[in-house]
Amino acid sequence: MDIVGSVKRLAITISLLVALAAGTLVAYDLFIKTSINLPDFAHNLIRITIIAGFWLAILFIITRSKQTIAKHLGDQPATIIQFLMGSISLLIMTFAILRVLDVSPDTLLTSAGIASITIGLIMSTFVGGILSSVFVFASHRYRVGDNVVVNNVPGQIVELSAMVTRVRTDVGIVAIPNSAIASGMVLVTRMHAHETASLSRLPYIQGDRVVTTYMQGEGAVTEITPIHTKIVLDSGKELTFLNSSVLAGSVAIAKIAQTPNLQTPNLHKETALNRP
Hints:
Layout: H1 2-32, H2 40-73, H3 75-100, H4 105-139, E1 147-150, E2 153-160, E3 164-169, E4 172-177, H5 178-183, E5 188-190, E6 209-212, E7 217-224, E8 228-233, E9 238-242, H6 243-248, E10 253-255, H7 264-273
Antiparallel strand pairs: 1-2, 1-5, 2-3, 3-4, 6-7, 6-10, 7-8, 8-9
Helix pairs in contact: 1-2, 2-3, 3-4
């Protein structure tokens, strides 16, 4: 509810500033322009200064609101929201300045259409990446430091940007385009703390001697992660099993325990029989 209220207050503030800017321009044309004798270019310069001043005020408010939005949504979504709102305010300011310069509405619409097509062709990839980032941040809610699984490869998120998500894995840092995550081409699953609790249910720990029904071999556990277990057999072969398969019983892995010495009672028995 706090984030909804913050966005609502921000929208109301911007709307009031836009209305105040329009009122200031009307008041200037009605009361000030007629009382002073200035060339037309000077009057247009004053109008443009008024518009630019209010736009800078709106931009300042948008920048200040980023901290509030970041507390609820994170730094990256707040940056994207700030970029979108700043772009919209810049577009409105540009149209207002062109209107002051007596550019006709038909020319504005035609110019806007041509500019939109040109910018769309040039920046389609960039804009698509931004929109994909918005979808990823809103639906997945990743954070830097989260343990994740990228297409069955475990790793940790080290950076979230407007275009890519970087994950540190055993083989290095992987840069994943947010568009690939949004489209489902790359699956990134965040691991919660309770998911690592399954390690305590495994019948072995790292370093234990175990026997597995797969290949009927004995060996030692060399590595245990929240995803898999690695076993090096006495033959030198290395086996990797999913922990879920072990817990489900699809693969049987048993710890080899040392058996007690059963010959000690026999020695006492022989000693007793040899007594005179």
